[in-house]
Write a structure and sequence with these properties.
three-stranded mixed sheet; single chain; 149 residues; alpha+beta; minor pseudopilin epsh fold; 8 strands; five-stranded antiparallel sheet
């Protein structure tokens, strides 16, 4: 004579998941995370790129006032001999980030800006362009994150 009724045995044997079912679920989760991780890191870097570009834009917008207050011209991207009595513009960027200009950026000691274009390049090679418009260094981020060529 059985101790447990027949329906109690069926319930007891179907509780939980088998090891194979758990391994299949873990493998699927690993694949999904492996495919999604690069998208998340690209999103994070894109946000950092925009944040750094906005910081440079703010520095450029404040540069004319800095030049007027100091009574000293500012420059960036001048190859060879820098202008006399001028101070370089320093962009405070994390390691691995690069700023390139299409030509020299000059801000006179009275705060007038010659204009130009800057490209900010992230360590991965993604880039953003910033357009600096004369005469007051109005700075505009002209395009979204792109892969540098």
């Amino acid at each position: 004579m059985p101790i447990f009724p027949p329906h109690a045995k069926a319930k007891a044997s179907r509780q939980g998941f088998t090891l194979l079912e758990m391994l299949v679920v873990l493998a699927i989760m690993g694949l999904v995370l492996g495919l999604a991780a690069p998208l998340f890191t690209a999103r994070i870097e894109s946000g950092q790129l925009i944040q750094q570009a906005e910081a440079i834009a703010t520095q450029m917008r404040h540069a004319p006032m800095r030049a007027r207050l100091d009574g000293q011209a500012l420059y960036y991207g001048v190859e060879g001999n820098p202008p006399p009595d001028a101070r370089p513009l320093d962009f405070d960027l994390p390691d691995g980030w690069i700023v390139r200009s299409t030509g020299p950026l000059m801000i006179s000691d009275i705060g007038l800006c010659a204009g130009g274009e800057i490209t900010l390049i992230a360590p991965s090679g993604r880039s953003l362009r910033l357009q600096i418009r004369p005469p007051l260094c109005e700075t505009i981020i002209t395009n979204g994150p792109q892969q540098a060529g």
